[in-house]
Structure formats: C-alpha cells, structure tokens
Give the backbone structure.
Amino acid sequence: MNTKANSATSLLLSACLIVKNEEQLLPDCLESIRRTVDEIVVVDTGSTDNTIAIAEKFGAHVLRRGWADDFSAARNAALEAARGRWILSIDADERLQTPELLLQAVHQAGNDVGALLVRVISERSNKEGRRDRVVNSLPRLYRNDKRIRWSGRIHEQIFESVAAAELKIADSGVVLQHLGYDLDAAAMNTKIERNLRLIDLDLRDEQENAFKAAFLYFQRGKTLLGLGRRDEALRDFEKALEQKEASTIRVQLLNQTALMYLEDGRLEDARELTAESLELAPGQTFAHFVLGETAAKKGDHRTALDHFRAMQMIGENPDAASRLAGDFQLPPEQIHFRLGREFLALNQRDEAAAEFRHALAINPEEKGSKAGLAAIEAPLLTLSMIVKNEEKRLPSCLNSVRGVVDEIVIYDTGSTDQTIAVAEAAGARVIRGTWNNDFAAARNEALKHARGRWILYLDADEQLEAGQRKTLREMVNAAPENIGAFECTLFSPHTQLDGGRKMHTAGYPRLFRNYGYPTIQFVHRIHEQISPSIKALGKEIAPSPIRIFHSGYDAEADVIKGKMERNYKLLLQQLRDEPENAYCWFQMGQTLNLMGLSDQAEQAFQMALKIGTLPAHLKASSLASLSHFSGQRRAFGAALEFADRSIAALPEQVFAYHLRAYALLYLERHAEAAAAFEETLRRMDGGGGVRQTAFEIEVDRKLVEDGLAKARAGVK
C-alpha cells in the first residue's frame, strides 16, 4: 500500500470491498490496488475458503459480517470503517487498470465534487461466440462523507445521497476491468437467481417511488434476460419506460428495449427509441449500433454506414464518448465487419474488401469478414449444368454463354460419348457421377462445386439469347440484397404428338444468388425447383429481361414420346413420396396432356387445385387447361367459368382470354365474345403494357381473328 500515508489523518484513499469465497479472484484484485491505496477494508460475508487469509496477507482490515441479503448494508459497513478521505469501491472480480489516474483524479477534484465516475469495462461472449464489450461509467470513487451512503439491496447506488448532499459527480478517467461475466453457466445462473430475488424484495418496498421502481424494473428485465425469460424481460422494460424522467438509466433502458424490438422486427419502434436515446446522450455507441442494424434491415445501407462510422469514431476518440453507464461497445474488428457488410450491400466492393481486411488484421478468426472477403474474391457468375451424352448440343449452349459467365461447372451423369471432352475443351470443371432418376439431386451435386456469387443454370438443349452479356452482368452486380433470384423467360417450341408445333413460354428463376449448399438447393425429382430455397430465406424473385431458347421439345415424335414417358415415371415416384405436392400434380397434368391423355390430365390439374398451394401463375395455367378440356367436350359453360377463374388468378395473361372468347362465341353471347376477342388481340400486341406471362401457350392469331369475325357476324 501507499507508504506516504502514516497516520489516520493523512490517509488519502481507502479501498472498500465486500467478499465471500473469492480466493480465486481476490489476489489479482488486491495486487492491482495495493501500491495505490492507503488502506484496504474488506467486509467478508461468510467465506469458507482462504479469502480472509488472502485479504490479511495484503494488509487488509477485515470485518466479518453475516450476509443479510443487502449489498448496500455490506458496502456501508466497509465505508463506516474506512479512514481515507476518498473511497474506491471495488469488487474481487475487478482490476484497477489506471492507478496513476486514480491518484490524479482525487488530488484534482474540487471541493464541490462528491463522487467521480469510473469506467467499468466488461467483456462477455455473445450468441455467435464473439466477445462483446460493455462499458459502465459508475460513481465508484467518492468522498468519505457521512452524507454519502449506498442504497438498494441489489444494484446499489450512491447517486441519490451525493445529490442530496448538493455535491457534483465528475469524470475521473479511471478504468476498472470487470471479469464477472466469465463464470461457468451453473455459477452464473445461481448469481442471477439471487439477484432476481433481491430485486423483487426492493420492488416490493419501492412501488410508491416511481423513479426507483422504474430503475428496478429495468434491472429486473436485464436479470430475466440472463435467465432466458425474454417475454417477461420485455414487459419489465416497457413498464420502466412509463417513467419519463430523463436519466442515464433511461438512456440504457431505451437502448435495451430498442435492441429487443430490433430482434422482433419492430424496426420503426426500435428507431424511435434509439433516436430519443441519442438525443439524451449523443456521445454513445449503443444507440448507434441499434440504429445501424435497424437501417441495415430496412435496406438503408448508407444510413447504416453513418451509424457504424459514428461507433468507430467514438471508439477511436475516447474524448468524444459520453460517460454513459451500460454503453455497448463492439470490438473494432466487428465494426470493420459491419462497415464492410454495408459497403458490400451498396456494391462498393473495393471499400468492402478493405474493411474486411482491416477486421482480419485485428482478429484473423473474425468469421463474418472471412466470409465477406471470400464472397468478394469469388467469381461473379457460375454456369451450372447436368449432362449425359450431349456432345452434339453442348457446344451451342456453351458458346451462348462465352464471355458471360466466369466459371462453368458440369455434373456428368455417365456420358459414353465425347461430352466430357467437349466440356473440358470449353474450360468447364467436370464432376463425374451417376444418374439416379433424380434431377434435383444431380443439380445439387453441381451446385456444391459452384464458386460464383451468382449461378445461372442451363441444360445442353438451351442457349442464352445473344447480346445479353452486358445486361445480365450489370443486373446481378446492381441487385439489391433482398433480391435472391431473377426469373428468366424460356421460349420452348413444342412438337405435338400429332405433328403440330406450338410455342410455349415459361418463367423460371434460372439466375440466383449462391447462398451455398445446403442453404440453397433444388427440390423435386423431376421439374426441379430452386425457388422454395430462395423464399425460405425471405428473398424475392424479381422479373428480368433475360431470355433463354429451349429446343428440347422441338424434336421427332418418338424422342418427345420417350421424354414424356420418362417424366411420367419420375413424377409417379415423386407423388408416391409426396402425394400432397400440388406442384407435382400440376406437372403431372402437363405431362399427361402432352401425352394426349386429356381425361387423366384433367384429374391431375383438379388435384393440384384441390390441394390449394399453387402459386398464382400455376393456378391460372391449371384453370386455363381445364377451360380448354371443357371446351373440347363442348361444355362451354364450364369452359367460360374456368377461363374467368384463370383470369382472376392472373389478370395479365393472354391464353385464358382466348379461351374465354371462344366459350362466349359457342354460348352465342356474340357481343361479349367480340369484346373478348378484341381484348385478346390487344394483349397479343402488348397493348396497355399487358405482357404474356409464364406458362402461356402460344395463341394462333388467325384463330383469334376468325373468331372475332364470327362473333361480329353473330352480332349483326
């Protein structure tokens, strides 16, 4: 201890502690203060280990006192025995970091200063395994004045007594490191349960004092959070918020409640509370953190950047910081990560990479920055394919994406021709596998090897429309974070089993972000889909101008028949596994229709609609098919009803309008039929901005014009 103090009247500084069974932590605490303070006073509340012997070894004056469920009573007992003119209140799990500032602060304090704020810094592991930093500025250094005493059984305070003595509270710059959050789970739970019991006792006594009750509800809420009782905690925070008096406690309360609102998706509520908090205490980081995360979730990445930069500035310039109790401070690498994340969302890739590298220079294990940097350094676009014996069609497909994609990944399911050689000559990475009657499984094998930030998937019988390189790459580079995929339009000429030929158009999310397998994966054995994974992530599928030409159904009748039979068998397998899968019933209807089995196709479409989970465009397509089948049976009333339901499901289409017009014509409602034929032609020409939609069948213009002429003739 400080040897310059040699009498009771000359003691400048006493350290006061209350302890119980602290033999592990106490030595380092006392070592951190022994050369700075003039005496150490320890109140022991019932230790059964070597705590008292350790304290006495350091020259402490030890008072034995039974524990009475009251921290203030124990602290005040130490205070009564202290002889220094100033008191440092410290716990066994704390370490003095700035002894020189401690002495300087008490020497320089004016006579009107009753207490000095000390920064108590705690670190604790969060849910992601990273370390969070919490800073509390507390009046732990105060005059030994009979008017200054602690109050409250738990989370004890001296603010009120200092104010009642008409003395000021000033800053000291002194720092204590707090280790109390590094207990094992069982010990921490015991400590929290004890705290909750003491808070409830204080709440029972302080209900008439609105300010104290608000403080206790706030502390109770934090304690309940520690026990995982989140809903109860939020109710206590909201009770505490009813007390409107401005204070440092209110600032903490606003921030903590806002953080919970943020977690619950109540973004505007979170923003309002933290805006008030920042007005009360401008130089803090907690409110900036919540406002930054709130802005990021709302897609306002520039505002998020501003708040994370403010956190960075405050952290790097302590003089700019408020002395807010309970301020939340992210480690520097976490701030750099968030800056990088927001730059990446704004597509400022160089700036993002720089921030991620700063974070990794501080902490090479920072996972978010590792992933962010890997994403930036990954190629932009991967072409992903599955093939088997496609030596004739594969060259045209790969030529169509030359200069568009950065990487080609092909999963070969057992080619015996030159397919693999053709692929490798084009620079593709080929993974050899086997075919197991499952298109989704095969596509997922290719997906596992894709490194691009975006993935385009094609088949060997498809080609990307010429001249789309710039459009496609600019589109994905500029895509906002909420867009997970782009729908591309496939144009597919179909040779009918009777030798006829029709153009089908279909919209599919052929271009999607690479969130990594299995986060994102294809589903369904046949007519596989990626969209369920996109939607499960809460991402949107946006329309795009990208056009793909598909020639696989423009083939000889026996080839088409073979494809239909293969698809039929795979769909049967899928439906045995998932009999309530509306999408598979829809595809079964399509397949049976192409096979000329219209009665069975009609039943499949009816089943798809009955299950009731089809998206609007597939529902509309199913209803249009049912309208077509009804018309073929000359059940024109039913044909009209199905056509109207199809249009109601998807108003911006053409095919169902054509079916509606013919149903009206055969029902001899000629004026209505003429209007419907006119509307069909207008839509075919793109009038009024109406466009043909996914899963439309090409409408023969001559048939529409002939129908219009008949309807007009009938009107006459």
Notes: Residues 185-206 form the longest helix (22 residues).
